[in-house]
Amino acid sequence: MTGCSREGWWRTRIIIAVFALSAPLSSISASAQDVSMSAPSVVRAKAKAEFSSSLAGTIVSLPFKEGSAFSKGDILATLDCVLQRAQAEAAAADYQAARADFDAREALLARGGLGRVQVDVAKAQAAAARARRRLAKAVVEGCEIKAPFDGRIVEIPVNEFEYVEPSQPLLSIVSTERPEVEISAPSVWLRRIEVGSTGNVRFDEATGSHQIRITGIGATVDPVSSTIRLTATFEGSAQGILPGMSGRASFE
User: Is 66 contained in some domain?
Assistant: First the structure.
């Protein structure tokens, strides 16, 4: 074997050895990436609501302040509805009169003193008066905003004694029920993550980690970011965790 041939032979052997050594390293690196997975996460309230005025009027009461806690059924805001209540009383009186007229005509029909047409007209008038009474009652109910769940006040952009217009924002609230964790995960996680998978999450605003369990997987993948939304709940205590806190969730 000549010198040049011997040199080429050794060069080929070295290249083969390098490839043989590099293959296990790449597979180990890929395996390490598969074992530890983390993604950004944020705390979301179980429920939230934003209320707007359904009618025009003056705010006479805002018993809670921003950050205050309340219970389901508490009155969060009250508007001055003197005119609306008067209209509701008038509608109720109109219905009583229309109902009495219908009852009287029906009694006359039974004795043959009145025709069916007059009774049917009175019946229709009573039904229309009942509908107006229900409408007026619904308007009055809009004078008070009641809490649909236990929660806390997030924001109140208005003040007492201010005049508000229909659809004007009055306040926003969030539920104090155990919050959820929303995770923006790479779509490739779908190969390994499923409902019931457990992991941990750390938040920038809090100390320590919290164990979480996946309870929901988004229905679609974002084609731009190749991410999917996962929903998780806290397995242990969530004391001190507030909606809006952000951090990273990790899964093994």
Answer: no
